[in-house]
Amino acid sequence: MDKEISQDALYQSLGHLFFNLLWIGALSFPVVTWFYQREAIWISLPFAFVMAGGGLITAVGIWRRLPSTVFFSTALTIVLGILCVSVWILPFVDSYKSGKPFSLLIKKTVPLTQPLYIYADTMNDFNFYTEREIISVLSSPAEVEKAASGAKMAYVLIKERDLSRVDIGAEGKVLAESRLGDKKWYLVLVRR
Fold first, then answer.
1. What is the DSSP letter of 98?
2. Residue 1 forms part of a structural domain
3. Last residue within a domain, chosen from 96, 126, 159
4. pLDDT tens profile 9-38
5. Number of independent structural domains in the chain
6. Residues 115, 148: one domain?
7. Residues 139 and 63 in one domain
8. In a 3-state reduction of DSSP, which class is residue 134?
9. Would you say the pTM of this structure is higher than 0.85?
10. Which long-range contacts (CB under 8 A, 24 or more apart) does 147-154 make?
């Protein structure tokens, strides 16, 4: 006859493993943040304390066989963890991923009477944040040349990787730049 592990022992040992890993892992979150993004250390502390405290209280509840403590500490850990993420972590991450600050700078720099173009990109939020219905997409350097020669100048949004492909002219210049996620964008004034 095979010896079976009782469900109670299995659940208890898995619960211990998970919640002990949670509170120990949560304490490493500020340490990792310190090495990679020091200005975000203050953001990682509330989340780490919530996760570490919740994991530790839940692990103690499992060890003492207190199901109500396990239930309420798990629920409270989830609620407070989501609150920490939504109040501190996501706004911090959003500042690196959102095109809103750069779009507001574009809105201040480029008059609404002047057309704004974007070079070789269709997936962006610039229309929404600059409050422009149309930002025409230019797919080749020849189209940039055509747009600039018609009005003697053109405002073009262009990624760093494409900047060397486009001739901005002798009097052309970079008006603004911003990193959005892993891409660097430029607002360029192309003059002819």
1. -
2. no
3. 96
4. 888 999 999 999 999 999 999 999 999 989
5. 2
6. yes
7. no
8. coil
9. no
10. 147/115, 147/117, 147/190, 148/190, 148/191, 148/192, 149/192, 151/114, 151/115, 152/191, 152/192, 153/189, 153/190, 153/191, 153/192, 154/115, 154/117, 154/189, 154/190
Query: Containing domain of residue 139, as a range?
Result: 100-191
CA distances from 114 to 125, 151, 153, 155 (A): 19, 9, 9, 8
pLDDT (tens digit, 9 = 90+) per residue, 137-185?
999 999 988 888 877 788 999 999 998 888 887 788 999 999 888 889 9
Specify if 129 maps to a domain: yes
88 close to 46: Cβ distance less than 8 angstroms: yes
- How many whole angstroms separate alpha carbon 137 and alpha carbon 121? 7
| Residue 127 banded pLDDT, cuts 50, 70, 90 | confident
Q: How many other CB atoms sit within 10 Å of the CB of residue 105?
A: 16
Rg (CA), the chain: 27
Give the angle 97-164-101 at the CA atoms, nearest 5°.
Answer: 25
